[in-house]
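REVIEWER CHECKLIST
Item 1: Sequence provided? yes
Item 2: Single chain? yes
Item 3: Sequence as submitted:
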Amino acid sequence: MTIRKFAKEDRQAYISMSEEFYNSGAVLHPVNGKNFEKTFSLLLSGNPLADGYIAEENGEAAGYALLAFSWSNEGGGLTVWLEEIYVRPKFQCRGIGRSMISRILHKYGAKAARFRLEAESSNVRAINLYKRIGFRRLPYMQMMLEPPFPCSD
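Item 4: Structure as written out by the authors:
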């Protein structure tokens, strides 16, 4: 198995896997496919807010991981968000997800104050993996606001 940063020739593999991921039970709802193109372009641009890895087994795309970076006053430093971790069903239970996370922890562990991720409560296998690695459940609710944003005077 190989885990490496995305390269321009990985575009179609990434988009296919993203479509699979967002049409699986691991997420609440599908997203606009244009987001996949935007994300892949961002990953290749060298933008400091994102990073991405592809896992391959015998030359076949087996999964991917997307990262986003933010600052946490509460944590006292860099937060590495494991935005998406996806392993194709036929490659699951082979240690690929654990290997991707291990690679990320090794690369960013000395720089990060914390690592964060989200998981759907029904994604029990993923949650169990995250717990075995050492992630713990947070006792609060997350919220978000998306466009159209309310206007203020």
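Item 5: Key structural point noted by reviewer: Strands lie at 2-5, 50-57, 60-72, 77-87, 112-117.
Item 6: Recommendation: ____
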